[in-house]
Amino acid sequence: MVGPSRPQFVLFGSSIVQLSYSHGGWGTILSDIYSRKADIVLRGYYGWNSRRALQVLHKVFPKDAAAQPTLVIVYFGGNDSMGPHSSGLGPHVPLPEYIENMRKILVHLQSLSETMRILVLSCPPVNEEKVKGNTSGIFSELVRTNELCQSYSEACIKLCKELDVKVIDLFNALQKRDDWMNACFTDGIHLASEGSKIVVKEILKVLKEAEWEPCLHWKSMPTEFAEDSPYDLVAADGKTTLNPSEWTFYREVQWD
Questions:
Q1: Rounded distance, CA 191 to CA 25, Å?
Q2: Could you report the per-residue pLDDT of 26-51, keeping only the tens digit for each?
Q3: CATH number (domain holding residue 209)
Q4: Residue whose C-alpha is closest to residue 51's, from 74, 76, 75
Q5: So which residues are the catalytic ones?
Q6: Distances (CA, A) of 199 to 17, 20, 81, 254
Q7: pTM of the entire predicted model
Q8: What total number of domains does the chain contain?
Q9: Residue 249 lies in a domain
Q10: Chain centroid to CA 88: how far?
């Protein structure tokens, strides 16, 4: 570990999480926004479903850890919602089991610390036409439909409300953009930079509006080593220095 100690935000999920550092992804954006506020830790696993998440849950989030995360952002559901394969193999998880798996994941996280916060991302939509067009000879047919995505998203949201866990409705959030099918995905499933910007906007909205103490919105969190210094850049007057600790002008988006 390096110091000083910072709040830790853990991203836990399947490929939507693992690839959040690719294509201008939402993990990359959060790491920039919180670059002097918190450490963003990636625990993303391409192709995983809620069953596999349960298998490693206590390894990723052990109860006897020296310190628990400040925030955990959880996403599973896209792979679970895939249509079942005739062989019984593959990532599909029936909806009732998915709900119970997510319940176990969230209850475990809630048990780790009274101060740890949890935020869940529900299953996003897909571009069905593009998914069908991307079928490779390596895979059997990928059955991804928005009807399935919506049912898993709605079930996830309902569960989160029952457990009093914050949740973002990604299924509807992405579709608020008129050209979402083409703009939001790289391959019809995984997020392009425009889709990731929507995810970040929704995450920051929740963090800003949540009545959590302390607040985890980036503007409310202290900036590390933010004191003025004579070693900062010299201002135009030649007598004072400019503290760059809070500068954000370099960002493509000026996040609220």
A1: 7
A2: 999 999 999 999 999 999 999 999 99
A3: 3.40.50.1110
A4: 76
A5: 14, 187, 190
A6: 11, 10, 20, 15
A7: 0.95
A8: 1
A9: no
A10: 29
